[in-house]
Amino acid sequence: MINTQEFNQLNRVLEQHTGIRLASSKKDIMASRMSRRLRATKLKSFGRYYQYIISDEGRNELSIFIDKMTTHETYFFREIAQFEFLYDYLKNNKPKRFPIKVWSAASSTGEEAYSLAMLIDDLFYNQPWHIYGTDISRTAVNMAQDACYAISTAQKIPSKYRKSYCLKGHGDNEGAFTLINKIKHNCTFTIDNLLELKTVDYSFDIIFLRNVLIYFDENKQQKILDNIVKRLNYSGLLFLGHSETLKKKRNDLKLLQPCIYKKVAT
Ligand SMILES: C[S@@+](CC[C@H](N)C(=O)[O-])C[C@H]1O[C@@H](n2cnc3c(N)ncnc32)[C@H](O)[C@@H]1O
User: Fold this and answer.
1) Containing domain of residue 44, as a range?
2) Cβ atoms within 10 A of the Cβ of 243, count?
């Protein structure tokens, strides 16, 4: 059981580090997601757990707390119509500059970034390109860097990409697959917070910001969008998740398709 004071304390830590603030109705969800960590750390109450994660010794546990309290659901070629749109768009509007720079903002465990990598390499295999992925969760970023996925998840990858870019694991890696080295070498993952970006460069041609804005209030969504749009090149493309729309109209973005925008002003 978590009491209101403990919930508020932990919720404050979550908000300080991610910008996400849970509604009070999420008390039970927090308790159920964190009760295992209480047992693992042998702490007797959520109040003690809170004291631990705000202390210097609790720094690793803080990162586990953030990981457990954020939602990482993702899969290869999620919302495939957006990838099909991007493929056709790039075929008809060849980039004028290389390397092509793509950012999977909130990359979770890397499936979105690697999906983009396969698509871009297929189109521009003899040109330089780079995909950047960022996420606030250390565990998710580590998994993205490892690029080792359950073979069942490869079903979502169109077969032409699966054949060219995926390698089946053997021995210890039976039941898993990874991506060929060219794909892995051209994808870089770092830990970063969309609200106060520290590692992310400017001038991206394509940015995927999908299934993350929904977790923030309107002010924070605006702040994140400002951070993102200023890193997008003129005439670059921004993709949002299918349940995410711009709450306020922006003069610098033109809607091309639902949830797909083109930057039209610098
Ligand atoms: C549901 S996943 C979306 C993954 C992928 N973009 C997709 O659409 O499949 C949301 C991700 O956002 C990350 N996240 C949450 N708050 C964040 C923040 N403030 N900065 C960066 N990433 C954040 C979470 O760790 C999680 O991995």
Assistant:
1) 4-69
2) 10
**Atom in ligand 1 nearest the alpha carbon of residue 104:** 6
**Judgement on whether residues 179 and 115 belong to the same structural domain of the protein:** yes
Domain count, the chain: 2
The finding on whether 71 has its CB within 6 A of some atom of ligand 1 is yes
- The CATH number covering residue 59 comes to 1.10.155.10
Q: Of 201, 207, 202, nearest to 266 (Cα)? A: 202
Tell me which of 73, 82, 102, 136 to substitute to probe ligand 1's pocket, judged by most ligand atoms within 8 Å of the beta carbon: 136
In a domain, 75, yes or no: no
pLDDT at residue 217, rounded to an integer: 94
pLDDT in tens, 53-95: 999 999 999 999 999 999 999 999 999 999 999 999 999 999 9
The residue out of 44, 69, 94 marking a domain boundary is 69
User: Which tokens belong to 199?
Assistant: 């590692």
Give pLDDT tens digits for 104-137. 999 999 999 999 999 999 999 999 999 999 999 9
Q: Which atom of ligand 1 is nearest to the CA of 67?
A: 25
Burial class (CB in 10 A: 0-12, 13-18, 19+), 251: exposed
Ligand 1 contact via 136 beta carbon (within 6 Å): yes
Which of 69, 95, 115 finishes a domain? 69
User: Rounded to an integer, what distance in angstroms lies between the CA atom of residue 144 and that of residue 201?
Assistant: 19
Residue-level pLDDT at 23: 95
Query: Is residue 249's pLDDT more than 90?
Result: no
Determine whether the shortest distance from the Cβ of 203 to ligand 1 is under 6 A. Answer: no
222 touches ligand 1 (CB under 6 Å): no
